[in-house]
Specification:
CATH class of the largest domain: Alpha Beta
Number of helices: 3
Helix content: 25-40%
Number of domains: 2
Strand order of the largest sheet: 4-9-8-6
Shape: elongated
Low-confidence stretches: none
CATH superfamily of the largest domain: Ribosomal protein L9, C-terminal domain
Order of helices and strands: EEHEHEEHEEEE
Largest sheet: 4 strands, mixed
Distance between the termini: 73 Å
Number of strands: 9
Mean pLDDT: 90
CATH topology of the largest domain: Ribosomal Protein L9, domain 2
Radius of gyration: 23 Å
Strand content: 25-35%
Length: about 160
């Protein structure tokens, strides 16, 4: 039979909770994993009060991240990112457009760093023309970014 233990999280633990929260876990999980790694402590009044300030700071940080993600989403919503690359005669690129390139262009445009891993690109873009990628900004905040790859040396319209 599994016994349940209440623990106070000292760090955010994925799929369990955030710093300062009191959560219920299996007793063995608390004893063998959370306590030895310093991820949780006993939820005494003193400990709860001690981590209340950290919890408020953590919640403020999460709110700030969400606001920043909404700002980036709004700035990118109507933008088309243009890349110029050399291409073969059949419109295939010599050098592809990768998620790192897209992240750098977003940072240049918005002034905020985006991790390339947050850009959903199944494979690098290897052809001229319009493309579309999804960027996961934060939790459920995503934006569809339009990308256009033009040929280097082509005449401007």
């Amino acid at each position: 039979m599994i016994t349940i233990a209440k623990v106070l999280l000292t760090s955010t633990v994925e799929n369990l909770g955030h710093v300062g929260e009191v959560v219920e876990v299996a007793d063995g999980y608390a004893r063998n994993y959370l306590f030895p790694r310093g991820l949780a402590i006993e939820p005494t009044e003193h400990n709860i009060a001690r981590f209340a300030k950290e919890r408020k700071a953590h919640e403020a940080e999460l709110l700030e991240r969400e606001e920043k993600a909404r700002y980036i989403r709004d700035r990118l919503a109507d933008q088309t990112l243009v890349f110029v690359r050399k291409a073969h005669d059949d419109d295939r690129l010599y050098g592809s457009v990768r998620s790192e390139d897209i992240a750098a262009k977003i940072e240049e445009l918005v002034g905020e760093h985006i991790e390339p891993a947050k850009i959903r690109l199944e494979r690098p873009i290897e052809t001229l023309g319009p493309h579309s990628v999804t960027v996961n900004l934060y939790k459920d905040i995503t934006v569809e970014v339009r990308i256009r790859v033009d040929e280097e040396g082509a005449k401007e319209e």
